[in-house]
Amino acid sequence: MRHLLLLAALATAAVAAQAATPAELQAAYTAQAGSPAQAARGQAFFTSTHGKEWSCASCHGVKPTGPGKHAATGKTIGPLAPAFNPERFTDNAKVEKWFRRNCNDVVSRECTAAEKADVLAWLQSLK
Asked: In the record, which residues are listed under signal peptide (predicted)?
């Protein structure tokens, strides 16, 4: 019986870990970083090329409140700012997947927790 309760609790926690809000994700990244998120730093990170050809803005737009377009494939990308696309940053697994892929494309590495928190702070400030 004890094992069943433990399995049920773990399953519930796993489902809860998948659902999130942008603010909750930002808070988690901020806690991991150990310093407050800064929207201005997030905007600078988002629009900079970091020595490579692309920036985040290359596909999502300098102000990601409308649709973007993938720089290589031309595929339309929905608005990134949560106020303009309520589905953004609501699934932790998807957020991690896309941060991992996009950070690799833009900065050739995984983004730090501070970078993620900063970008989320800026995206949430767009209304």
From this structure: 1-19
Neighbour count for residue 7 (Cβ, 10 Å): 10
Mean pLDDT by 10 residues, the chain (127 residues): 45 51 95 97 96 92 94 93 96 94 94 97 97
Is the separation of the CB atoms in 39 and 118 below 8 Å? yes
Q: Are 59 and 66 in contact (CB under 8 A)?
A: no
Under a CB-based contact definition with an 8 Å cutoff, are residues 109 and 33 in contact? no
d(CA 70, CA 61): 10
Domains of the chain: 21-125 (1.10.760.10)
Helix axis angle for 113-125 and 22-33, nearest 10°, is 150
Handedness of CA 36, 40, 46, 48 (dihedral sign): negative
